[in-house]
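lol ok so funny story. i was supposed to be doing the assay writeup but got distracted and ended up predicting the structure for this chain instead. priorities right. anyway since i did it might as well share w the group, maybe its usefull for someone
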Amino acid sequence: MSIFTPPGDASLTMRAAEVKTQEINSEKIQSIIDRMFQIASGKRSDQRTMVGLAAPQIGIGKRIILVDTGFDTKKCTPGHFVVFINPEILWYSGEIAYGHEGCFSVDSHIVGIVPRSVAIKIKAFDRQGKEIFKDYSNYTARIFQHEVDHLNGIRFPDRVGSAGKLHWVEKSRNADYQKNWEKWDCPCPWDVWLAMKEGKPFTPPS
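and the output, tada:
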């Protein structure tokens, strides 16, 4: 049984609730954070390396995310997870970059070319309840935007849109995709994503 909410579950399309500041240090919220760290850390050694996690992905409708703020994209080596409670993006750069994204709340075969701001300014609370302000750029900014989207009921295919590029990637071709994603030869039809999002049967592209 998966620890993740199924892709067709309606809760993944809903806005998560804010954590009251006086509740941050409660046993309930601290245990949620501990559980998120445990789950995220356990997804570091398989073919899909986790670089972020939002509470709604594991069935918890709270505005809590984890972001790997030190992932090395050149060496593909993880850094460390940082928790952000009630995160907000205060500013987005006008410069946009396109990059490929997958998600544990979307079928593992689906990858999308997603436009994201290159740099952001954020505020949030840490697990001690202290308000923090940070600037992030490049891949860390991409992860942060991806995870905040989860808190608002948005997943990366929604950002790609029907006119964008969704790809279907078989596990046996994962390595090939990392090298050739910009010219991938197997698109994923928009209808496949819509069916999956609604929990309906779908036919994988050939």
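DSSP finds five helices and eight strands in the chain. The chain has a mean pLDDT of 94.
back to the writeup now i swear
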